[in-house]
Write a structure and sequence with these properties.
eight-stranded antiparallel beta sheet, alpha+beta, eight-stranded antiparallel β-barrel, 665 residues
Length: 665
């Protein structure tokens, strides 16, 4: 049975690029769809054909079922691969594709419907002997009834959107008094994300682990699993670190959970790739959460430990072929870990960023390091979509070696032009709890400040290296401008002895003046009354090896414009170089009578009116951007003097939302 000649990928970014890679290896032509915002996106560049399907808003482009289907038909595609997100779990779209005579590379619509409602899926699993968490998933969604059911289930409990996933529409409630507000917020988020606001209630398992099993089934009656992935390191229900195998499971628990995962897939007559997700209590008891009827963001983890291409399996199963391997032929080797690189600022509550990638540094790949990305240097990251830029996936013989490999890979990453979570990932991966594998789903939310906290004292070798790199950057700039003129070179050579050079830099505080001298291999740095001395063993424009106080340190540097990022292999420090004439203040803390949008996005809700008095911390509005909901609060006591934006409007970062006057108290 032959495979397809041409497949349309109904997605964007790194997942579209990843599907296209397998299609190319199989000799299958690919069609990209794109919104106007993605006209120059990477997935459009690498596809064989591309079709614009609408404006930037996802609801009018990537979620427009008819536009996607028409693109497939007009290009002569034989099948549609939905990736994950967007239309990947939309039963109506799957039916439309099949009705048009095309193949949907995923499960059947009937299976999606059985799983699309978390409440229905939970009841079905219980009927087939799969353990489920106590809770309520009934049709009666009246708030008063839900409050009574919540009180009956007991606290703490979880409110979950009955449709959708990705951590959206989920709230933990610890006491009855806050249930109503949490329910309202959860329903609003679910309605905006999935178009449906039905919720279900579940007993919240304290300090649980999140462990999921990759399952696969074909149309010949074969259903198997490909092992587990642990995704317990989460922030606000969004997975941060994924790994396989789980450091928690022993052989007995692994076998029981695998058996339950296969039973769950058979209960809904599953086809193609899917993931059965479990919540696992500290004592090892496990409960069914949901089946994700699609390929997962973290599927490369399974590919690394099995050596299999899951997208190829998807295509072969969709074409009617049996599974390539039976259960007893699946082999697992070593340990794999994945992290996701996002354009977001961890120091500002992980606020998403948008704009142009001015510089993109990623390490070279090898058999132990895989990078799945969807952006290049110079690309624009849009406010309209998820801000994930790439995924790093490492593989080694042991978990300890894989963690080391991941730390090395992160040290080679840097993005200029946008904020990123790279430093945060480095700190998290190095945390003792992660190193031990002692993580539950609430660990990161409980300990976020500890993970984000930077040591009070910056090591001296960072300061010395930063001064050295800043001078090398200045040398390079002058050399480029005065090539061939040795008297204009800003280097260490002088006809009569060794000069001291002034370099103005700042780390976190204000600019400081550094004096640096190099005599032979001896480097001397002075700032205020402090003097640092080190011996240079080896050096270049972007690397320096130092001997300092009897210890050896090798550091490298990323440089863009007037910014330096210095890295010693475990920690990075950020520096600004003084540019002549740029003495103006940063202006970050201005107070100009306006309350502004802290990020680009949609103004979802306005909660105050003009003329209304407010107290510090009062919620004034809610913004939505890139799968994130942000509360806009009053910066102090005062009164709202004007409403500058309408609910539902798209705002740029720093756009005015309110004019206000602070109180005189």
């Amino acid at each position: 049975m032959s495979l397809f000649d041409k497949i349309l990928i109904a997605n964007r970014g790194e997942i579209a690029c990843r599907v296209m890679r397998t299609c190319r290896q199989l000799g299958i032509a690919t069609v990209a769809v794109y919104s106007e915002a993605d006209r120059n996106a990477e997935h459009v560049r690498i596809a064989d054909e591309s079709v614009c399907i609408g404006p930037p808003e996802a609801t009018a482009s990537y979620l427009d079922r008819q536009a996607v289907l028409e693109a497939a038909l007009t290009t002569g595609s034989q099948a549609i691969h939905p990736g994950y997100g967007f239309l990947s779990e939309n039963a109506e779209f799957a039916e439309m594709v099949e009705a048009a005579g095309l193949m949907f590379i995923g499960p059947k619509a009937a299976s999606m419907r059985a799983m699309g409602s978390k409440a229905g899926a939970k009841a079905l699993m219980a009927a087939h002997g799969v353990p489920v968490v106590p809770g309520y998933g009934g049709e009666d969604q009246d708030p008063a009834h839900l409050q009574r059911e919540a009180d009956s289930v007991g606290y703490p409990l979880m409110i979950k959107a009955a449709h959708g996933g990705g951590g959206k529409g989920m709230r933990i409630v610890h006491e009855p008094a806050v249930f109503a507000a949490a329910l309202e917020s959860c329903q609003r988020e679910a309605r905006n994300a999935f178009g449906k606001d039905r919720v279900l209630l579940e007993r919240y398992i304290e300090k649980p682990r999140h462990i999921e099993f990759q399952i696969f089934a074909d149309s010949h009656g074969n259903t198997i699993h490909l092992g587990e992935r642990e995704c317990s390191a989460q922030r606000r229900f969004q997975k941060v670190i994924e790994e396989s195998p789980s450091p928690f499971l022993d052989a007995e628990h692994r076998a029981r959970m695998a058996q339950a995962a296969v039973a769950a897939a058979r209960a809904v007559d599953y086809r193609n790739a899917g993931t059965v997700e479990f919540i696992v209590a500290p004592n090892g008891d496990f409960y069914f959460m949901e089946i994700n009827s699609r390929l997962q963001v973290e599927h490369p983890v399974t590919e690394m430990v099995t050596g299999l291409d899951l997208v190829q399996w998807q295509i072969e199963v969709a074409a009617g072929r049996p599974l390539p391997l039976p259960q007893d032929a699946i082999r697992h080797q070593g340990h794999a870990i994945e992290v996701r690189l996002y354009a977001e600022n961890p120091d500002l509550n992980f606020m998403p960023g948008s704009g142009t990638i001015r510089q993109l540094h990623l390490p070279d790949t090898d058999p132990g390091l895989r990078i799945d990305g969807g952006f290049r240097q110079g690309d624009h990251v849009s406010v309209f979509y998820d801000p994930m830029l790439a995924k790093l996936i490492v593989h080694a013989d042991s978990r300890e070696a894989a963690l080391q490999r991941l730390q090395d890979a992160l040290a080679g990453c840097q993005i200029f032009g946008l904020p990123s979570n790279i430093g945060f990932l480095e700190d998290l991966v190095a945390h003792p709890a992660v190193q031990r594998g002692d993580i539950d789903t609430g660990f990161l939310d409980r300990n976020l400040n500890e993970v984000l906290k930077q040591p009070e004292q910056l090591p001296a070798w960072h300061t010395i290296a930063a001064a050295y790199f800043s001078l090398k950057a200045a040398e390079h700039a002058v050399s480029s401008a005065h090539s061939g003129d040795p008297w204009s070179q800003r280097d260490f050579w002088r006809q009569h002895g060794h000069a001291a050079f002034r370099v103005a830099m700042k780390h976190h505080a204000d600019y400081e003046l550094f004096l640096i001298r190099l005599a032979g291999d001896q480097l001397s740095l002075s700032v205020h009354d402090a003097v640092f001395e080190a011996r240079i063993r080896d050096a270049g424009r972007d690397m320096v090896s130092l001997d300092l106080d009897g210890r050896h340190h090798t550091l490298h540097c990323f440089h863009y414009d007037n910014t330096l990022v210095v890295h010693d292999g475990r920690r990075r420090s950020h520096w600004q170089i003084r540019i002549p004439g740029s003495d103006a203040g940063d202006g970050a803390n201005r107070s100009d009578g306006f309350i502004r949008a802290p990020m680009p996005g949609k103004l979802a809700v306005l909660k105050v009116q003009s003329g209304q008095s407010v107290q510090a911390g009062d919620e004034l509005a809610i913004m939505e951007s890139m799968k994130m909901e942000l509360s806009i609060k009053a910066p102090g006591n005062g009164s709202i003097t004007g409403i500058l934006a309408e609910a539902g409007s798209m705002l740029d970062s720093d756009a005015g939302i309110f004019s206000w006057e602070p109180a005189n108290d």
